[in-house]
Amino acid sequence: MTERETLKEPTARRLVNWLLVVIYASFIFILSSLSSPGASFLPTFYHSDKLIHFVEFFIFGFLLYRALNEYQEPKKAFMTSFFIVSLYGFTDELHQYIVPLRSAEALDLLADSLGGLLGTSFAMAGLRGGSLE
Prior knowledge:
Elements: H1 3-7, H2 12-33, H3 48-68, H4 74-98, H5 106-127
C-alpha cells in the first residue's frame, strides 16, 4: 500500500481540515450575501475592500491546500487549491452581482486569486518545511 493510499483513511485531523474549509467557504458566502458588509472596526482607505478580499482568500487558499494535501501530491494539491480558490472567487463575484447594493468587480476577483495563490503558497511552504520546490 502506498503512502497516499493510507492517507485516504479518515482521521480526526482530516475531517477537521475539511470542516474548516466548508465553514470558511460558508463564511465567505454569508459575507457576500450582505448588502452592506462593511465593519466599522476595519480601516477604510482607497481600495481597502481589495485588501479584505485578498485576506479572505489567503485564508481560504491556506485551509484548502491543507485539506487537499492529505490526498494529493504537493504540486497537484497546489494547482487544485489555486484553481478552486480562483473559481470560488469568480462565483463569489457573480453572487455579489445579484445582491442588492453590491457589485462584481474584476479587481476583487484579482485580489481573491492573488490572496488564494499566496495563501496556498504559504501552506505548501509550511507543510514542506519552507520549500516551494
